[in-house]
Design goal:
It is a single chain. This protein is of the alpha+beta class and about 700 residues long. The chain is about 55% helix and about 5% strand.
Length: about 700
């Protein structure tokens, strides 16, 4: 998930009178407290708008820092929360261009502006007068008179400033600022290289036989992709996860599976201008240097200092506790696949490009189930309706599609979200479901505007962004069970934003520690498999009939099938991430480091990391998940335990009392309370990791 945090972004010099002519600098107008006016924005507006907006924010910051009156919560902390409105709005549009509408014309703008965000963040964090005022409020006895949310906000500002070097000496501050600016440029380069390989490299399907085994929707998508590229071939498989993984699962052509696998796992690692290896080593070296300047042994130690885990050792302990049984289970699973290969007369050992294909065949043999049995019932639009229904049942939220809100692409649709008990509107939900050129791969949630009440009642604007492949005009989009889970996962992030009910934007919605932020999204995945959702919304795209109960039961029996595979590919990435950032001197050859690390972990040769190092955008496209990819597992331990709070009741996942506690202690509070404290209030105790092992099928289920 990449969430756009817009609170401390700032850039340099003013362009005279730009505000008079630049639509990006206009306040958002229209319904819902104002919305972005996308049809009137142009790429040429971005640089002058952001430059001007940053200068405005710097002026506001200087006014706070130089206020002659004694520092108070209101004139310092609250004043900071109110700064940068124009910048937040312009930057929100900039990041949408970056993620959803990237292009050769946008790339030089992105390359120029991204380091300036970092440059001006440095100016805020290294403003000595400003930090002195924040410190005064933080250390004042008057702080005890503030509300718990206000005290949390003071702590957040103070700890963030210290963490970013506010207490460092002048020489260190200067070097930290330069490191941050250089890193910002390298992050952009890494992302652009990866996007270039995803956009420009593809697998050609030249004959009818090349389509053997592919579901109809994947065939149609491949033909449409070739047509869009203006190629004289029958079809092309795009170099994105949403296209490659289904191909690896269903294609009967082993040679083509190998080609598809290799182009996908070589992104950022090809012998071309987009090779990311030198770039990522520079990133690692700069991070290690920065951590030392800030008084930490390694970047991992610095990165975890504001998380629930706190220490790298705790994350490694959790990861290894799951890694060992997962690897053992993979060996058992591979043995079953190999028996099938041998029985078919195949004279080869299972390779990584065979795993998904033969895993699907084993699933069919063991459970009389494959993904194609489920797909006719998994219509994208019906599942979207199912998500809305779950949001109504658990959080009393309703959704009304609206047409009076501008969008940034014709594929995008917008819904007004309201409380079904009071009919009060709480926000807007934008949905951008389809893959297209210039859109980054994967699925994510954005917060275009944070919910808050510090400067009037501000409604949140959130979006869910996916890369489903469009089929033929008028035909429903059918998706896999895994994609349906991802759809619910990202909607969980959106609900975290839409349920937010706090005062201050810095504490709002998903602005939580990164090893906690995945908890709300992961627990929402659990509702997909409930009979209530499947009976109402898993409807056959031709007959309209619900998924038969015997198919639901077969799917339930196979629920943890292949869990070992997904666990190993994900945790191997998390372990490599952590070990990279525990290096004090990361002068490495990435390929060699990857191999040595995985060999030491006894990584099964039949699986690769979910994200190989040169394409690991989570950790090299920004600092968001650097030394933090473990957070998915950490949060899943929490969500598995929280799920059992529901399943221990007679009403299961639809228990009203547990849902009320989930809203009050998780989804509505943002970062206003320490997450560990908030979870204890929800669960009545600390997290138990036993639930995680049960959920993944590595230990016996509760009786």
């Amino acid at each position: 998930m990449r969430k756009l945090i817009l609170s401390l972004i700032m850039i340099a010099p003013i362009i005279a009178n730009a505000q008079d002519a630049n639509p990006l600098l206009n306040d958002w107008t229209g319904p819902y407290g104002g919305v972005p006016d996308f049809p009137n924005y142009k790429l040429s507006d971005l640089k002058p708008a952001i430059t001007t907006a940053i200068q405005d924010k710097l002026t506001e910051i200087e006014k706070i820092a130089n206020n002659p009156r004694p520092a108070t919560f209101d004139n310092t902390i609250v004043a900071l929360e109110k700064t940068g409105k124009k910048l937040n709005q312009a930057a929100a549009v900039f990041w949408i261009y970056s993620s959803n509408m990237n292009s050769p014309e946008f790339e030089p703008i992105e390359t120029e502006l991204t380091p300036k965000f970092s440059e001006l963040s440095n100016k805020i964090y290294q403003n000595a007068k400003l930090f002195e005022r924040i410190s005064t409020v933080y250390n004042s006895p008057e702080k005890q008179k503030l509300t718990p949310e206000q005290q949390r906000l003071v702590w957040l500002y103070y700890s963030n400033f210290v963490r970013e070097g506010a207490k460092a000496d002048a020489k260190s501050k200067e070097r930290i600022a330069k490191i941050n600016e250089e890193l910002a440029g390298l992050f952009t380069k890494f992302s652009q290289n990866q996007l270039a390989d995803e956009s420009n490299i593809y697998l050609e399907l030249k004959t009818e036989a090349d389509f053997d085994g592919l579901p109809t929707e994947l065939k149609n998508a491949a033909m449409a992709d070739a047509k869009e590229r203006k190629l004289n071939v029958m079809g092309t498989i795009a170099n994105t996860r949403s296209s490659i993984e289904p191909f690896l699962t269903f294609s009967t052509q082993r040679d083509l599976r190998e080609k598809a696998f290799k182009i996908f796992t070589s992104r950022g690692d090809n012998d071309n201008a987009n090779n990311n290896n030198a770039t990522l080593v520079k990133i690692l070296k700069l991070r290690a240097e920065k951590a030392k300047l800030l008084g930490f042994k390694t970047f991992a130690d610095w990165s975890l200092s504001n998380t629930m885990a706190q220490k790298p050792e705790k994350t490694l302990e959790l990861m290894m506790s799951v890694w060992t049984p997962a690897v053992a289970k993979v060996k058992t699973d591979v043995a079953e696949m190999q028996k099938m290969v041998d029985a078919e007369g195949g004279k080869f050992k299972i390779a990584p490009w065979d795993y998904r294909y033969y895993s699907e065949k084993v699933r069919k043999a063991k459970y009389d189930l494959d993904q194609n049995d489920l797909k006719p019932y998994l219509q994208l639009e019906k599942l979207r309706e199912g998500m809305f229904w779950v949001a109504g049942e658990i959080f009393h939220l309703g959704f009304r599609q609206v047409s009076n809100v501008p969008v940034f692409h014709p594929d995008v649709r917008v819904w007004e979200v309201f409380n079904t008990n009071t009919n009060k509107v709480v926000g807007l939900w934008y949905f951008d479901p389809y893959a297209r050129k210039g859109k980054r791969s994967g699925a994510w949630m954005n917060a275009t505007r944070e919910q808050s009440r510090v400067d009037g009642d501000v409604l949140t604007i959130v979006s869910n962004n996916c890369n489903f492949v469009k089929g033929k005009e008028g035909e429903p989009i059918l998706i896999s069970w895994d994609d349906a889970s991802t759809l619910f996962h990202e909607f969980g992030h959106a609900l975290h934003g839409l349920n937010s009910n706090v005062t201050y934007p810095s504490l709002s919605g998903t602005n939580t520690p990164r090893d906690y932020v995945e908890f709300p999204s992961q627990i929402l995945e659990r509702w997909l498999a409930t009979p209530q959702v499947l009976n109402k919304f898993a409807l056959h795209y031709q007959t309209g009939k619900p998924m038969p109960m015997e198919l639901v039961e077969r799917n339930d029996r196979a629920a943890t099938f292949n869990e070992a595979f997904s666990t190993v590919e994900t945790i191997s990435s998390a372990l490599v991430d952590m070990k990279l950032h525990l290096l004090e001197n990361p002068d490495i050859d990435p390929k060699q480091f990857e191999k040595q690390t995985l060999d030491a972990l006894q990584m099964p040769r039949e699986i690769v990391m979910r994200h190989r190092i040169p394409q690991f955008g989570h950790i090299f496209a920004d600092d968001g998940y650097a030394a933090g990819y473990y957070g998915y597992l950490w949060a899943d331990a929490i969500s598995a335990d929280a799920t059992e709070a529901f399943t221990e009741t007679k009403d299961g996942l639809y228990d009203k009392e547990v849902a009320k506690r989930l809203y009050e202690n998780v989804f509505s509070i943002g970062n206003t309370i320490d997450p560990a404290v908030a979870y204890r209030k929800f669960r009545g105790r600390e997290v138990s990791t036993d639930a995680l092992m049960r959920a993944r099928g590595f230990v016996a289920k509760k009786k």
